[in-house]
Fold these 3 entries.
Entry 1:
Amino acid sequence: MSPKQRRKLWDVLRPKLKKEFDALGITRCEVCGIGIFLGFAHRYKRRFIHTEEELRLVALLCAGCHEEIEFTGHLPMYERITSIIENREAGYNPSIHA
């Protein structure tokens, strides 16, 4: 997938993911529970993502948590986002626990 294709696909997927997260009640940072300055964080830096499936694997994070996780390095970032996704799939919703 070229960078242009990836960007175009992300522009289509992002609003869909927003609706999916809203429908699940995930409206706050999945780490700290804050409800402002939110964005999606990927397991890999986006330039290393080459499939739609991987592009959809995201966590909803506030800017602070996103930055903190992103600058830990590739492997810790992958592990942390994967852990957040697994916790969500297991039923943990920080929007409820915040």
Note: Strands lie at 38-42, 58-62.
Entry 2:
Amino acid sequence: MAAQVPADRDVVISIRGLETRFGRQVVHDGLDLDVLRGEVLGVVGGSGTGKSVLLRTIVGLNRPAAGTITQAGGGAPVLELAASIGRAV
């Protein structure tokens, strides 16, 4: 369950249920993340733990197996992704 965002803070990137895989290797499984306006966020982890995959997925360079990524204002998802959808990201 995602933490509640304070009412005075805008979510500029919202990720829900992100799943990324390379073959049988699962990189992210059900990842939820909110980035707030003005927030400085660091992604930290060891080599091969999915930091670059996460960032590449957020900007649309990688196609995840499932999940949604929405941008500022809570509008329509900029990426609605599922393995069964055959459209380009």
Note: The two ends are 27 Å apart (CA to CA).
Entry 3:
Amino acid sequence: MAIKMTKKEIKEITNREVPTTIEFIKSDGTKRKMICSTNWDFLAKKKIKLNDGGVRDKPKKEPDHLIIVWDLEKNGFRYITITKILNIY
């Protein structure tokens, strides 16, 4: 069952200076745990190396039903449907 949190509450958790783990249901129906962050200042301090060697700015637009996070294991932006989030810590 999905958690009962607003987008604002989720962003407050993912915006801390420590990585956040989110458990959610992917669009293909499988369950996934992701270590991520939305704290762009924290990510810049950690000098996240992108796969292409470049620098990536934070996403410019975020639809209301999604949250955009930086996946610390896959090294890239990911979109998570808010209603599919099962747990966040």
Note: The mean pLDDT is 86.
